[in-house]
Write a structure and sequence with these properties.
By secondary structure, this protein is an alpha/beta fold. The protein has a domain of 125 residues: P-loop containing nucleotide triphosphate hydrolases (Rossmann fold). The chain contains eight helices and ten strands. A hairpin with a 2-residue loop joins strand 1 and strand 2. Helix 4 crosses helix 5. The longest helix has 18 residues. The N and C termini lie close together (8 Å). The protein binds adenosine-5'-diphosphate.
């Protein structure tokens, strides 16, 4: 293998990351780099390693080999406490299911991470209200999220991720449980607000219509990033093609 094709100029990088679950290799040397403010989509067949790559980039999984860099520092070698702190303060997450607490109201769900980060109660709830409003679900603030529709719940999840003013949002099939029209609305809001706030987004999806919202697309196959398309990816693609 050649040296890593990514440079220190990126906000997030995976360099030749390998990760197995028991005997199952999920990643076999995946490299990808994401610029500050970029919206990157990761596509590929089911089981190709997309989610594992996202979890490695977000410091949730530790790779067996390779390196993960965030904002100029090695993420994969940080201690668990420091990685947890980073995840809480710099990263927001939107997953397909289950990230909201169904017994709590929408406002509670959005305010909760802020309260955990020691934001005062009034400010936390005021911020939650602002983001619920921006996601078009201000009227659901007092509703338990378990009672909301799938589309409403995902808007609350996006509000919760953005309310923390994260540097990066990691989204794993964020519209996977929604019909296409509802999914498009959620993607419209997520990408418009991310662009407005300069938030970097790393998005796993199997849906080309969802990927179309991104600035750049990479394809994962058999645990490797096989294709890197789009303006910011040209350097990586050229270097990979030359190998
Ligand atoms: P994708 O997101 O592209 O569908 P994944 O990253 O979820 O792919 O999975 C890649 C491979 O790793 C698959 O073979 C999957 O079965 C396996 N895998 C992923 N997560 C786990 C896990 N927690 N335990 C065991 N195997 C896993």
């Amino acid at each position: 293998m050649s040296s890593p094709v990514v440079t220190g100029a990126y906000l997030i990088e995976a360099r030749e990351v390998a990760k197995s679950f028991g005997q199952t290799p999920a990643l076999r040397g995946a490299s990808v780099a994401v610029c500050q403010g970029e919206i990157l989509a990761i596509m590929g067949p089911s089981g190709s390693g997309k989610s594992t790559l996202l979890h490695c980039l977000a410091g949730i999984f530790t790779p067996d080999r390779g390196e993960v860099w965030f904002d100029g520092q090695r993420l994969d070698t940080l201690g668990e406490a420091e990685r947890t702190r980073l995840r809480r303060t710099a990263f927001g997450f939107v997953f397909q299911f289950g990230q909201l607490v169904p017994e709590l109201t929408a406002a509670d769900n959005v305010a909760l991470p802020l309260l955990l980060n020691r934001v005062g109660r009034r400010t936390a709830y005021r911020t939650a209200g602002t983001w619920l409003d921006r996601l078009g679900v201000a009227d659901k603030g007092r509703h338990r999220t378990g009672e909301l529709s799938g589309g409403e719940a995902q808007r609350v999840a996006v509000a919760r991720a953005l309310a923390m003013a994260p540097t990066v949002i990691f989204a794993d099939e964020p519209t996977g449980s929604l019909d296409s029209l509802t999914g498009e609305k959620v993607m419209d809001l997520l990408t418009a607000l991310a662009r407005e706030t300069g938030t970097t987004v790393v998005l796993v999806t199997h849906d080309a219509r969802v990927a179309a919202y991104a600035d750049r697309l990479v394809i994962v196959r058999d645990g490797m990033v096989s294709v890197d398309l789009g303006p910011a990816g040209e350097q990586v693609s050229a270097a990979q093609a030359a190998q």
